[in-house]
Amino acid sequence: MADTLTREATIEADGLRVSVDLAVHIASLRYFNADGVFAAAVRSVVGMALPGVLQAAMGPASWGAGAFTLAWRSPTETLLLGVDGERFSNVVAALADAGEGCVVDQSGGFRVLRVCGERVFDLLARLGGSASAPKIGEGRRSRLADVTVLALCVRPEETLLIVDRVYAEHLLTWIRETAADFATP
Amino acid sequence: MMQLNCPWCGPRDENEFACGGSSHIARPGLAASDQVWGEYLFFRDNPKGVHRERWRHVQGCGQWFNVARHTVTHEVLSVYAVTDAPPKLG
Amino acid sequence: MSAQRLKAPAGAWIDRSRRVTFTFNGVRLTGFQGDTLAAALLANDVRLVGRSFKLHRPRGIYSCGIEEPTGLVDVGRGARRTANVRATLIPIHENLVAQSVNCWPSVGWDLAALIGGFAALLPAGFYYKTFKWPSWHLFEPTIRRMAGLGRGSGQSDPDRYEEVAAETDVLIVGGGVAGLSAAVAAAQAGAKTTLLASGAIPGGALGWRGDVEATELLEKARRLGVRLHSRTMAFGIYDHNLVCACETIMPDGSDAASGGVLRERLWKIRARAVIAATGAFERPMVFPDNDRPGVMLAGAAEKYAHAFGVACGQRVVIAANSDSAYAVAKSLRDVGVNVLAVVDRRPPAMIRADSCDGVRAIAGAAIGSVSGTRAVRGCTVIPLGGKPERLQCDLILSAGGHAPTVHLHSQAGGKLRWLDESAMFVPDGPAPGMASVGACAGVFSRGAAADHAAEVGNALARGLAPPPAPIGGASDERVRGTMGRGVSGAGRSLPGTHVPGTPGKQFVDLQNDVTLDDVALAARENYRSVEHLKRYTTTGMGTDQGKTSNINALVAMGECTEREPAQVGTTRFRPPFSPVTLGLIAGRRVGALYRPRKHLPAHAWHEAHGAWFEDFGDWRRPAAYPLAGESLEAAAQRETAIVRKTAGLFDGSPLGKLEVFGPDAARFLDLMYVGTMSTLAVGQARYGLLLNENGTVMDDGIVARLGEQHYWLNTSSAGVDRTAASFEEWLQCEYVDFKVAVTPVTSRWANVTVAGPRAWDWLAAAGFDPALAPDSMKHMTLRESALDGVPLRVLRASFSGELGYEVNLPADHASALLERLWAYADRYGAALYGVEALQVMRVEKGYIHIGTDTDGTTLPGDIGFARAMDRKAAEFVGRRSLLRPAATDPDRLQLVGLTPADGKTLLPVGAQIAASPPPALTEGHVTSSYLSPELGRPVALAMLTRGSQRTGERVRVHHLGTTIEADVVKPPFIDPAGKRVHG
Question: How many CA atoms lie within 13 A of A79 on its CB side?
Fold first, then answer.
């Protein structure tokens, strides 16, 4: 039985729709060398290379709806996201034996907000700085609403905001208030 | 609010970072005298000019890096790796 | 009748077909849509608007813009009442309510005006000399009540403010001809260009002179894609070209819909290059009684006439120190106003021959006196070497010269130089990252300004150095031929606008009542520096920030001290350029968003079960679960008793959790902790302290081993971010070859803690694996387990001093587990317990709380960890500091327990321990203190000098004038052998 947020989890405004996705599994892939043994294991198990600096990628295409997203978080960390629970568990188990790195399951520790609409950029400009908005294929960790958020974009028309779970309420409240004023020119 | 060029994440506002004070301070061993240890803990140069200092991109990649910054104009003369020796600045 | 509305076509900005009714000081008046409050008041011949700050002299509208020093009013009603707003900036709307400030009972009959009679007692700096005997505090309340101008609403601001970040290549501040020319040129050169204009319609003076060029430039700018922001005033430039600007969405005094509106927007714009096109302020002339209602700036009167169709007076005298006076004279005559004379301070040689053109000019003359107190009735003109002449007038205008608006340039680190010819400070070259164009660069001729601005816009767009401004005496001759209608070149002005030796109050700062005598007094008392002049006399410290006073003040100081204006210099320019609201700075950070709060995964569950939430650091946590009518303290006592008697359930999710992995994890932890972690067996846990390099205790927590290269760390809930950051610093900066990954997992894992003698029975009933039972799982061990497929990490540990299990599980399942356990609570008479109860229990057991019982000086030995440290051969962070003489000083403060001698009195936290009441040398202080339900008496922890040697001693605890006797005891207060935990 999953915990639920205490409030309505979808925010809608002119040109903007924000919803909370509770079904995303997340893991931190930690490694000591982005080109080493662990990276090779990821490529073999997940079917994708570790993304480069500030990059995010979705795939492999062959997995369809069960595709994963990999997002660069630091020189020694990549986030793995997926909605297919079984696939996710298999990947985590398979990487447990990979050397020179480890997998830390973070499911439930982050909240994933899906943000769509033409005014995504306006929203991000009101939460953070001008470097916070990711272009497609990018994942940018920055200060939004005074908390740390990874914003990533692997599909056109959709930006994901990944925030530490304990700050989700704070971020959502800020977004809600901002969206409420979107009607003002 | 300065804008710092994180070597990984690019230019970001200062409030995403934490400053770690002067760089290139060698940590003395246990055999150091009280005076040497005290200087390591508490004594720092305070130049009116170029200062080499460490910053951490706390709300980004979490990495430490070095910055050579002019303390009066805030001009950033160099950004370099935390393990690098300080570059020569004319 | 003197001030009045002019006939059309005067009034480019008003819509004569739309009448607007508003109220001023309870009187209903009308104006036209497009009027500012100031314009509408003048149109209604309302000349007395307020009272000055110190002397309560009558004041009126002085200017037509943001530099307004005296036309301040309170606008709005109820929660929207806004104090000290400049009437020159408020657009009137239907039912606007405004009133005068700093007067009682009314602006017309102000009781405090009697102060004027005591003006001699109130010179600059009076509060250092008078009102001191027998004690300043006698007078202080009255003086404080009289200070200030308007009155705030006293209610919460119902409106909202937001913050937007943007970036651009070239940012232009100012929407006049220079700014627009620069913007067009920059955009044409391909730069992403943004322009900020503070007015509603960009165009500057050209806009209300009906000049076509402004409209053309605007259209061109729009077509080229320049981002134009109107009603947006740049108020500061900060490091690395960050410009902050305030966009006014809802003007002051508006009666917006209830529920609040978005009122202002803070723009934070990072620009590669900035161009300041901020214009110039007009300098007032200084003469006796130059503060009377009816004395105004010349340019303002012109603007009121043409933009608002308001004549500020019918019979006008212009006191002049600048050629602009003649342009204004002509402009006013064009709308039918009678200009009696221009009283020009300058000698004939400085006055341009072609200026006068039918206006009577009296050269080398000054105003000697003004008659009329609530409104100007006339003045006396004193020509040099001639007879005084009395003129009957109702408006005296100041054309004292101009002061380029160099604030942004100076904030950006730009230098200034004094132009002797035109008596003004101008930018001395560009500032880093910013160039100035137009009047703010000293270029007053329209053609030259536009050309230069275009060159600058083009150059900065292409990353080249901006060409210098064409200013100085020579260039004025050069550009004379290209002067446009109405806009004059800077011409020549005298530095000082007053005649030395003239008797009477000659005001330099109109808002703060600072006169030339005050400046002279400051000079005599050796407050000669311009910064001292400012603070001692308060000139320039009002809400107008000296926009119409700073130059006159520093020039006057120069004359008193035989220095040139350049030698006196200007005070440091700091943001904001014009006042900004606190709301704008706060933005969304109000109420629940004031600071980011952390919420428990099971917050809703706790709420549903009667939790009383409080803020503990960043976390919102249940302090207790009071029953109906129970106080917080009583609830904590009840909960504590139940936990010690049977069992309790606690949400420990905020406890910090870190996963540390890697081949070097073990030796890394040995370096970080006091306490050897490398010798832990898998599944074993150990308490450790974290020090900083100074040896100070920074955090504590339990470290458990999950695998050969894998550790599970608990830290304090407040310390986890700091501890994780410290680990990263050591790994990235010092131990760079170590292979260790530190991953914070505080939010991934919730912590459900069950504590008490029946704790295991309860868990077993709920289905927990028997392998976790106390007889098979020792205290201080960690086991991985599962419950219905949900993975668990169960740590047998205790902060309460009772048998305790900390069940870590994925946060999504926290509520479910709480619910599941709660279903069995009745069977054991168990209770939920909160942070308060936990604090009671840990104090009963003598367990410290970092930051409560320890501070920035506390070393491990002070809290009983000296022995543990001695066993270690290896080095760890802070070790070297523990070998210093101060660390081994026997007089150090050490942790002790205290009980009150009378068995009843709760020792106040923070109370000092000393041999006698203060003043006395302190021997320590009380750090934690609670009533122990088990013992039925108060218990406390304290830091006491040589504490470990003083067990059994009676000490005195002092608090706010009382003294409590207490006995020093060795903690813990209950279960010293720890049987309840270890079995």
Answer: 31
Let me know: does C412 contact C390? Beta carbons within 8 Å: no
Range of the domain at C703: 656-744
Domain presence at residue A3: no
Helix (H, G, I), strand (E, B) or coil at A66: helix
Which of B34, B52, B79 to mutate to test binding with chain C, by most C CBs within 10 Å of its CB?
B34
Establish, for the pair of chains B and C, how many residue pairs have beta carbons separated by less than 8 Å.
49
Which residues form the domain of B62?
3-23+37-81
Q: Quote the tokens at residue C282.
A: 């007009």
Identify whether the C-beta of residue C926 lies closer than 8 Å to the C-beta of residue C908: yes
Q: Does A177 touch chain C (CB under 8 A)?
A: yes
Confidence band, pLDDT 50/70/90 cuts, at residue A7: very low
| A123 domain residue, yes or no | yes
pLDDT in tens, C336-363: 999 999 999 999 888 876 766 788 999 9
Tell me, what's the ipTM?
Answer: 0.98
Among C299, C504, C290, C297, which residue's Cα sits nearest to residue C376?
C290
Partner residue opposite A106 with nearest CB, options C603, C748, C815: C748
What phi and psi, each to the nearest 5 degrees, are found at residue A42? -60, -45
Q: What is the pTM of this model?
A: 0.93
Min Cα–Cα distance to chain C from A120, Å: 13
Residue C256 token pair? 């917006």
- Interchain contact, A178 vs C588, CB within 8 Å: yes
Buried b or exposed e, range A50-74, using 16+ CB within 10 angstroms: bbeebbbbbeeeebeeebbbbbbbb
**Same structural domain for residues A73 and A30?**
yes
Would you call C239 and B62 a contact, using CB atoms and an 8 Å cutoff? no
Identify whether A4 is part of a domain. Answer: no
Do the Cβ atoms of A142 and B59 come within 8 Å? yes
Contact B58, B81 (CB under 8 A): no
- Same domain assignment for residues A146 and A176: yes
Q: Do A129 and B10 touch (CB under 8 A)?
A: no
Given the structure tokens 């035109």, which residue do they identify? Answer: C422
Residues A42 and A61 in one domain: yes
Q: Is the pLDDT confidence value at A54 over 50?
A: yes
Looking at the structure of chain C, the number of domains it has is 5
Neighbours of chain A (3+ CB pairs under 8 A): B, C
Q: CA of A76, closest CA in chain B: separation in Å? A: 9
Q: Check if C736 contacts B (Cβ < 8 Å).
A: yes
Cα distance between residue C178 and residue C447, in whole Å: 9
* Main-chain phi, psi angles of A38, to 5 degrees: -65, -40
The answer to whether residue C176 sits within a structural domain is yes
d(CA C871, CA C892): 22
Measured between CA atoms, the residue of chain B closest to residue C743 is B62
Residues C602 and C750 sit within 8 Å (Cβ to Cβ): yes
Report the CATH number that the domain containing residue A113 is assigned in CATH. 3.30.1360.120
Instruction: Tell me the per-residue pLDDT of B58-69, one tens digit each, with 9 for 90 and over.
Output: 999 999 999 999
In a domain, C863, yes or no: no
Q: Establish if B88 belongs to a structural domain.
A: no
Minimum Cα–Cα distance from B82: chain C residue: C733
Which domain CATH number covers B46? Answer: 3.30.2270.10
